[in-house]
Every structure is written in C-alpha cells, then in structure tokens.
Amino acid sequence: MWTWFISVCFCTTLASAQQSGQDSPPPRASAFSLFLPRPLDPIWLPLPEAAWPEDPGTLNLQIVSLPSNTRVPVRNIRTVKYGPDHRSLLIELSQSFQAPPGDNRLSVSVGETDDQLPSAEASTAAQRAFERAELTNYDRQIRQSIAVEKASEEKSFDTQFQLASTGGGVGALNLNKSFKPGFLNQIILDVSYGKGGSKKADPKYFGVGLTFRKILLSSKQRKEIERLRANLPSDTLASMKYIVERSSSLTTAKPKPQWFLNYGGVRLETDLRGLRPGPVNNLLYTGGVELRSPRRQIGSESSLFFWSFRLIPAALEAGKNLRNKDNISFQKYPIARLKGEGDFKLFFRSPCRYDTWFSGILFEAHFTNRYLLKKESAFDRVTNRNDLVVKGNQYSLQLDLKVMTGINLPEDLRFLKPLKYLKIPKLGRHPALTFTYRRGGVPPVFAFNNAFKIGFSLESSDDNNASDLGNIIPGAKSP
C-alpha cells in the first residue's frame, strides 16, 4: 500500500535576509503542495541548512488549507519530528483532519510569524524546484500503486542470528542489489549465507548469483503506462497536469499481481568449512517464471491486517559440479533440477505507527521443492562427509514469526556520541524478535534440517519492488 511509504513532496523557500542593526532572523521554510495529503500520510518538508532547535515541538509550525486559507488546528496535527540530520521535517495529520470543501492543497511553514504567512505563489526558483520534486514524487506514487511484495530473503539487506533447539548459534545473511538497465528490466546480484543443517557440525552454505529479470505487467497496465509516457509536454508543470489526468487509472485501481520472467542467471553455490569453500562447489544456470501479489488488506480499509503471496510454478537449475572432494565419482558431473517455490505473508500493523516499542507482527511461510533429475552428493552426519547420494524430491520449509519493535536503526542509537559522527547506512526496518521452524535441506549438500530457533533479525525497508521498477515517467529522478 503506497500510502504507507510515500510522502507528499514540497518545494522550499528560505528567508535569509538580515535586518540592518539587528541579529539574523530565525530560520524559516515554507512550501506549497499540488495535492491534498490524506490523514496519516507522511508529509516531508525539506529544511535548508540552518540552526534548527533540537525540539521540533518548539517550531512555529503553521499549516493552511488552500484556497480557502483555513488554518489546520494543532489538534489535527498528529506527528511532528525531524528526519535524518535535521534536513527534513516529518508531519502527519490525524485521522480527524478534514479539509474544507473545495480545498485541494496545503501550505506548510515553520519559523514564520502571523504577519509572515507564505503567499499563494512561490518564487520562480522555488517553483522550479517544486516541479522537479513533484514529478519525482508522483513517479514514485505510480510505482508504489503497481508494486508487489518482496520475500524477506529478497530484500536489500536481511540478517538474523538465532539459537537452535539442537544447540549452537545460527547466523544468516542475504544481500540483494538491483540494477535497472532499462524500463521494467532488472539485473539482480544476490549473496546468501546460512546454516545448511540443524546440528552444530552440519555444513554452512554460501551462494552468489546474477539474475536477469523482466517484469511482465498486465496488458492494461502496459497500455496505460505507454499512453502516459507518450507525448509528454516539455514544460514540467504542464507535464504534471498531463500525468495526473492520464495516470488516475493506475493510482486508483486495485493493485494486481505481477508476473516476472527470470530469463537468465548464473549462480555459484558451495558448502563452507570455516571461511573457506568446502568440498562441494556447483556452477548453475537458473531461469523461470514467478507470480507475486501486492500487499492487500484483510477486511475494510481501516483494517490493520494484510497478506501477500509469491509463487514460482516452474524454474530450472542446470549446470555442473566444479569440485567434489568427498565423492570423486560426482566431480564434474552434470546437474539438473526442476524447482517450485511458494511464499505467503500475513502482517499485523501496529496502530501506533511511530515511536513505539512494538510496530507489528509478521508471519511468513516459505516452501521450496527441488526435483533432482541427476544424482547429487548429500551430507552424511555419521561420516561427517558429503558421501551420500540423493535424487528426486528435496524440499525445504521455513516458518517465521517476527515480533517487530519500533526502534529505528541507526537513528535511535545516535545518543551514543561515537555513532553520531559515523556515516552509517539507514537500515530502515525495525529489529525483530524472530521464532523460526525449519525442515528439509538446501543445496549444495542437502543436510537435513529439523529444528526450532529463536533469535533476532533485521531487514531493510524495501517491502515491495517499487524502487526496482525504474522510472515510469521520463525525466523523473531515479529512485
């Protein structure tokens, strides 16, 4: 749901003139929107570099509904807080906010006095900045309206540390980087690391792959986007009016599932002995098709429950073994697998939204079945070697229950002075207490896993693939 993540962009003007014989006035910023944000939609007001007070509650924040020029009362302002490095101000209107009839935009200002309320027209320079911001923002809104959900393992960053019921600690890490060489085309670099079995002596697995993907929108969506992209006016403001008129069918329609074609990929998989590659290394070609759904509400529009799914009905993994020290007869042996995969997510969102110790509960079920067309080596716990032989169905099931906290990392750790001056990437997603059950085996050596685990996990905030779609509106800033 794009209303969770998309802010309404504004242009900013700064009053920096000094009065003769007087101190410089306090910093001021004002902005005007082309659209009227809905309650609980975050509004981000860009702030110029200045000495802003530590407590945003002391700012003289004034929000005016236009064109009636009606001031929004304080009781209808739910949240006011700084963004990273005090470069923006997050404002959230409460659910009780209702714009006067006929109003269609807002004016927002900080540091202004009653006799300095912003006029209805911005300066030429500010208007140009505003138009660019609005163009990029609306492009983001369109992408959010057609975006679909990601599985946890597909996010930019996903890591966890858990204690298994069979003893020992288990760590896992997934990194994914998406490149966009063209509209609706992706190149995905993924790195995965984890424990291949439930026993302490079981091998770890490591994989790195490169996937070439095409996003297959419905014929109606493709036609709407082609119609939107065709004959855009050269003037940005005129483009905005044109885009709003022609994109309404995309932004207001109920989100639909998307098909993906993974038409080519290469992947190296190995078991690990310490930090070194283990005795079994495979190089594979991968390809297949998959269907993904957007995050959908269960029940009414005010419901806090959501669900989504991912389905891979057909995929191929084919290649050859590069090294197999534990079973020489399978070294350089061809590999061929058929794969089916499914992922289901059920999410409860906390009604508190911000600054809470509890932000939601996520249940995720992930099932994969590989049918091995050729014999492959497997791990034997008796000999502690990969000298077993397997063929046919090899499945893997993982059930996760995540209780997510409301702590933002690393922003909420900045009370520690050493961290304040470090350039730490924004991880976004709140850390979670995770309960996991795993059963089955994963390549390359299919060590059987049947264990319950408890620990902590941390994911990046890219819950859907909106940032992977590329620019839908030509000329908008790249996501």
Sequence-ordered SSE layout with sheet pairings:
Blueprint: H1 2-5, E1 29-32, E2 42-46, E3 62-66, E4 70-71, E5 77-82, E6 88-93, E7 105-110, H2 124-146, E8 157-164, E9 169-182, E10 185-195, E11 204-216, H3 219-229, H4 236-252, E12 258-273, E13 276-292, E14 296-297, E15 305-324, E16 334-349, E17 360-380, E18 385-404, H5 417-420, E19 432-440, E20 449-459
Antiparallel strand pairs: 1-7, 2-6, 3-4, 3-7, 5-6, 8-9, 8-20, 9-10, 10-11, 11-12, 12-13, 13-15, 14-15, 15-16, 16-17, 17-18, 18-19, 19-20
Strand-residue proportion? 35-45%
The residue ranges in which pLDDT falls below 50 over 5 or more consecutive positions are 1-23, 115-123
Give the overall pLDDT as a whole number: 76
Along the chain, the helix and strand elements come as HEEEEEEEHEEEEHHEEEEEEEHEE
Question: Describe the biggest sheet?
Answer: 12 strands, antiparallel, barrel
Query: Which term fits the overall shape?
Result: elongated
Number of domains: 2
Helix- and strand-based class? mainly beta
CATH class type of the largest domain: Mainly Beta
What does this structure look like?
The chain has five helices and 20 strands. With about 475 residues, the chain is mostly beta strands. It folds into two domains: about 1-120; about 155-215 and about 255-465, Lipocalin (Beta Barrel), CATH 2.40.128. It has a twelve-stranded antiparallel β-barrel with strand order 8-9-10-11-12-13-15-16-17-18-19-20. Strands 1-7-3-4 form a four-stranded antiparallel beta sheet, with no helix packed on it.
